[in-house]
## 1
Amino acid sequence: MKKDSRKSPREWEFSSASLSYGKANVKIEVQEYNPQLEPRVEWRVGGRSFYSTDCAKCFTDLKFSVARTAIYESGEGVHALTLASPEHLAPVFLMWPSRRFVVDVTCNEESDKGCVAELPLMDGSALPFFSEFRRNVGAPEELAFYDAPVHALWDLPYGSVKITPSEAFEVEYILERNENGRVFKSAANVSIYSAEDLYNVFAARTFILKNEFDEARKAGLLGGVDESCGLLLDNSPEAVAPVFRVADEPARHKILDLLGDLCFAKPALPKVRLEIINGGHLSHRTILEKVLPYALQ
């Protein structure tokens, strides 16, 4: 008789460099399957409760900021908790919407300003997380969607965002940069109806242009990053073309970031079509603020 893998808790640990630290760590536990309990992802920082998706209304209590990654904060002073970079892990929970998970991110530093925890970058994608879950949790389930009859259009400093209702989750993401005659462009169009549609998004690695990386390092940022954490793109005329893991990998990674910024609040997707030009975590947050009220109904 085959043992039901949903019956017993399982725990995995992931460690690697993060954006700011040479080593970061997260433990993830999948709890016993119980159809009478509401599914949830409970996020902890240093063993202390931070946020749980079964109280999505509590999400707006978290402070939000961006520093090349999404940063969430709760509490004040010595009791403050800061969680950075959940956007590569959060979309993986879309695959198992009926399950309950506990995510405990180890504190990277503690002071009189509280505890700061940053998730490991792994290879800069969601694939290491997904692969481990797939082997141990089982086959992905049917995705969870919610209606979001939103019509919106607004400009960004160098781009725009458009939202319209859809029958699933669809996104067209365009990146365009032109610096001193050096042009960088990547574009991807993804329609997500089922778990299979997420794989090429999960595989896309984070990236940074070489000139941006050099400037960040001079400013004392990205202290934990090395060549194993993603793609370093050189858009100079003499540069060798990068080898991508999937087609239009930079734009697909922006879609991964988008999914993470939307799904951290609740592991479900809004039924919308998004057209985004040169977006980022701040514009993703604005999208979330427009669709999340429908997820809470």
## 2
Amino acid sequence: FIGSEGTLGIITTATLKLHPLPVARCTALLALSSIENAIAMLTLARHGFGPSLTGFELMAGNCLEDVAHCFPQQRLPFEGASAALPWYALLELSDTESEAHARERFESVLAEAIESGCVKDAVIAGSMAQSKALWHLRESIPLAEKASGKSIKHDVSIPMSRMALFVRDTNRALQEAFPGIRHVIFGHLGDGNLHYNVARGGDWTEADLLARQDAVFTLVHDRVHAVDGSISAEHGVGQLKRDALVRYKGAVELALMRSLKQALDPQGIMNPGKVLAALAH
């Protein structure tokens, strides 16, 4: 019912399972030369931390540059070549045993990652304040994006094995179709969720960007579909993407959705106009 965005039912009761707070957290910002290396680092972290891995956020370098430009009080904690790399990842471990245990596990995995070459540089938070500062960099990306003007946003899900291919090929296709367009890419790599946004570049006005919105949506969503991804990840379909469903879902899938809606909500009173409007005949 949650996945259907309220179109198939309503929640009347919720039961929560509580877990003990972790006794220690370790946070690091990693400098990376490619998405492939980010995926390799994620694999190492999953193997080394297991369920204690509680954060792995991917960020394009230009996103952090935008944050530093819009909010001068924030800065990238790297210098030299490490400050000019194309990708960064925010890594977090939450440990239930002890601070010493957490630090030992964390440093062991990072040492392996640096030795293997998948991480070029790393800054480990030495305090809770430093950890919050690193997370603040990530959380400020949407704020910097908004401060820079309107953008065209895509909340998509991509198979991990095809993430690098999708970003590389879609970036190239967008530049060929709309020279100068800016890429604003960040997301929750551990979930395969990517905020693949584009913003105006060069001397474009916001009107120039929005005039191309439908064409950009189609190009990006076609690329998502081509790598067996989903055009709707954590933000759902809602109204903005509902008319695109008929382009990316098969006849059997659409018929099943219509049948479920008719069976569970024959009067069409549950969140009307969302997700399924494009399926009505």
## 3
Amino acid sequence: MAILMAGGCHVLIPKFDVKLASNAIRQHGVTSFITVPAIMADLLSYARKEMISDSGMTVTKILNGGGGLSDELINGAYKLFPRAAVFSAYGMTEACSSLTFTALNKPTLQEPKNQPGTYSGGVCVGKPAPHIEIQIGMDDSNTSSSPTGNILTRGLHTMVGYWVNNKVDSSESVRNGWLDTGDTGWMDQTGNLWLMGQQKGRIKTGGENVYPEEVELILSQHPGVAKVVVIGITDSRLGEKVISCVSIRDGWKWVDARANHKGEGKEVSPHILQDHCRIKNLSRFKVPRSFIRGGDHFQ
């Protein structure tokens, strides 16, 4: 709607098809488009396969949603669309899509500087749009000094509730006008929102909270890791134990924890991945205690 109000036009295709989308960008001189990681991956893969290098010269703005773009996808986007500013949005359908926006010069995953206390972690998803209110709601389970809590939002952009049995049910999602996004995070002094993960996926280990998404993002930055999933399994001592299932990239060798490393350079092992987590300053209790190698069809 904003494009139409600004005097622009939309280029429509029946459904997403990477060939149709790539051709439409070139033929119609598309200047901006919205994507998700899977679509960006398809566009980059198609461009490499067809040896296309000039399809994105007209594109000046790309908005990503539905999940974070990896380093590989961001670097690929800059090469295929060299004139484009790439932004990422965080939000949900129940709140009219986007809540916060951030420019992706490079993904932000680091310890925030000049923040009170010693707590850090998460992915910076930017600042709220001008009409968006966001606050962090603390529940009874947060007994530490951590600023992490439930991400809540309020405003005309939020839904009234879910339509259930011919009536509106807002008891579980909307309280006192605040919509619970179902995600967990915190806000820094400059107003940036830091996303930790989903409330339902939280792992409780040794009294500490671990959000799988944060650990997965760290592990996915290792050059030998293709895909990764982090889960918690029942443990008699810790309550839950953090473990990870990983799929390695072609050309890399998996070395069992009990085997000796040959030092060939392209090796992945539980010890190597644990060291990678520590180098990335992941808190000790968040580092997976064991790793399982996924098969070729691991999703």
## 4
Amino acid sequence: MSARSLLSAFSRASSCSFPRRALSTRHAISRPTGGAARLPSVTFACRAYSQQTPPDPSSSTSQDPKQNPLHQTSSGERDRATVGVFTPTAAALFVLTGVGLFFYFRNEKEKLLEQRRKEREDSQVGRPQVGGPFSLTTHKGEPFTEKDLLGKWSLIYFGFTNCPDICPEELDKMSAAVDKLDTEYGPIVQPIFISVDPARDTVAQVARYVREFHPRLVGLTGDYATLKATCKAYRVYFSTPPNARAEDDYLVDHSIFFYFMDPNGQFVDAFGKASTVGDVVERVKKEVARWEREYGRKV
């Protein structure tokens, strides 16, 4: 076979129509005894491994490796799939958020405590110095001092039993307020009447007078010097002459207030003639609520 014939046969074998071919060659080289060399005999064979046409890489129907459940990911992708969204950045944001919330709520708590402290100061600073030691006698003939005010809220009115109109009106108002407070809290508010007319307001006279108002109203009286000292401590003005006698006919000019005292015997507020029953009740309820927040009890 000539060299041209050999090249022609090789070209035909290379242009086989199957995409994947295996070239199998069998050749034998023989040398004639005469010493002349002979070209090897070459036989070409084509064998198809598959009759299926391979997919076109540019085709849109080729499978995405990420969508193939059998697709094997790299070790980094497997790690990310295991950890999920909890990346180092997310962990840092989580920690920072927690720290921020901690300081925020601690700051809010400090603000609340500071507000309560200021409320206590505001309720104490600027209060008039009303009240003090005294020793009087009740309408039952029993001793009564400032220590008997402790442990209860008190409403204290100064007047006299011969008062024609103002004293009864104020005592009626005070009694109505106490009734409303009793309904909501029980008997935590003690109503008290203190006479500013020692010459005529004896124990017996005071006992008859307080029965016309609230059943828990305590009436107090005493001698002139003791009542004057008590009125001075409570900043109450009265015009009873020191030498007045019970048979004398006179009127007593005095301050028209009843005082609101806390369970420690400290002054809270004063209610004048313009105050209504509702005003008294709401003011007492507000103070009781503040007291309960601070001390955990109503009295």
